[in-house]
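Anyone up for a design puzzle?
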């Protein structure tokens, strides 16, 4: 099924070819430097500056002046059309379609129409050539049906629509502020969990569960002994010794019962994922960095593998932690907990590791989605060619705030409950924003059906 929105057009229409004309003037024809800025088009920003050029020679690029429309024939189906209503001067790739309206039709009215459900439906309808990729050429654009409304009435409707849009925009801005506050609240909760502030009252009521043999230092000693035994048995490999954390390197003071250690002291594995080529079909899914979102695994946009040796080598186990070692500066180091029994492997830009003993992987996942974690990523990442990298060696050196097991359990229970509440609030806020978008489409629908 096509993925555009089907709408029924019941109002009188005319063909767009009656009201538009193509713009084909090139930069070379202007004989000046006013049009040397190269623009592109997105479905969010419209006409926007881009640093991308197909060639250093832009003499055959098409100029755009105020009042011009521009779009990529292969991208307009998702709403990527721009209208120059700000007197910018520049040029776009010769692969783009550039046009303007004739005096008998309002440019503003046409832009609102082409961005509406009606316009999107018709763009996809006339751009559907039955091939792998849809493309709306200029000749196809001319076939689009537009409302049969005279110019003066179009201007009246544009003013009404703009007033509605201003009101809805203010509402959406308020919604965005609410979502931003909820995001900050998540980070505050995680940071307080990492620093032990979230469970301060619990420690006062349960002093025995954080002292003596329950002290995190005792847990660390136990894990060390267990690791040495596993190394002797050949079940895990011996790693390079990790340096102790000096007082000057401790990010903050920990509460009673906690200790600082290295992640490599309490975790094992630290293995890179599969570098073999995956495909759209195969036996089992391959998780990539895009599948790690907000501490969770997103099971969308999956690729697959049927490579038996790769599957055997990189098969995930429930409670594995996945660390994105290469990404943009803002996203490198994002981490998620794998909580499925589904047969799945992971790609090469991810490091998989597992916690020792009774240490809760959920607790570790909270730590590695906190602002404390993001600060560490910014501290240790290596930048090159627009990407950042944090290798497995640096990950093993991660400064890890180890809490007593009982307190880890309490932290996980509290954070889970709070996050469920925030999830519900975000859902409600997002639904309000969706309703505002539907309201805007209703306003447009009423306008065009005059």
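Challenge accepted. My sequence:
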């Amino acid at each position: 099924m096509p993925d555009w929105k089907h709408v029924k057009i019941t109002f009188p229409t005319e063909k767009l070819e009656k009201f538009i004309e193509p713009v084909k003037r090139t930069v070379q024809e202007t004989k000046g430097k006013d049009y040397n800025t190269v623009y592109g088009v997105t479905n969010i920003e419209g006409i926007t500056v881009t640093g991308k050029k197909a060639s250093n020679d832009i003499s055959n690029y098409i100029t755009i002046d105020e009042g011009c429309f521009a779009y990529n024939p292969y991208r307009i189906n998702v709403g990527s059309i721009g209208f120059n209503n700000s007197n910018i001067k520049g040029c776009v790739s010769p692969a783009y379609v550039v046009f303007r309206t004739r005096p008998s039709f309002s440019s503003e009215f046409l832009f609102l129409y082409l961005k509406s459900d009606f316009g999107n439906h018709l763009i996809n309808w006339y751009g559907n050539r039955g091939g792998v990729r849809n493309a709306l050429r200029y000749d196809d654009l001319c076939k689009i049906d537009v409302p049969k409304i005279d110019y003066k009435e179009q201007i009246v409707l544009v003013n009404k629509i703009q007033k509605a849009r201003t009101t809805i925009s203010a509402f959406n801005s308020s919604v965005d502020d609410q979502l931003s506050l909820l995001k900050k609240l998540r980070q505050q909760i995680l940071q307080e969990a990492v620093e032990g502030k979230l469970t301060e009252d619990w420690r006062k009521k349960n002093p025995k569960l954080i002292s003596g043999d329950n002290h995190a230092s005792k847990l660390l000693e136990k894990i060390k002994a267990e690791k040495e035994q596993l190394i002797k048995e050949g079940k895990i490999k011996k790693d390079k010794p990790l340096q102790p954390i000096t007082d000057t390197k401790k990010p903050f003071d920990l509460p009673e019962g906690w200790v600082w250690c290295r992640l490599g002291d309490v975790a094992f594995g630290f293995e890179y994922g599969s570098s073999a080529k995956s495909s759209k079909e195969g036996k089992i899914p391959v998780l990539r960095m895009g599948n790690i979102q907000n501490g969770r695994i997103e099971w969308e946009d999956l690729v697959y593998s049927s490579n038996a040796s790769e599957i055997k080598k990189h098969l995930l186990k429930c409670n594995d932690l996945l660390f994105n070692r290469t990404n943009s500066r803002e996203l490198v180091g994002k981490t998620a907990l794998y909580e499925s029994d589904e047969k799945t492997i992971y790609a090469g830009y991810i490091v998989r590791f597992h916690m020792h003993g009774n240490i809760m992987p959920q607790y570790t996942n909270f730590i590695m989605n906190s602002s404390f974690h993001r600060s560490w990523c910014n501290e240790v990442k290596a930048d090159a060619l627009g990407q950042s990298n944090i290798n497995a060696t640096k990950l093993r050196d991660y400064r890890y705030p180890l809490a007593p097991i009982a307190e880890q359990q309490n932290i996980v229970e509290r954070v889970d409950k709070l996050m469920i509440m925030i999830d519900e609030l975000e859902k409600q806020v997002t639904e309000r924003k969706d309703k505002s978008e539907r309201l805007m489409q209703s306003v447009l629908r009423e306008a065009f059906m005059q």
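A detail worth pointing out: Residues 151-194 form the longest helix (44 residues).
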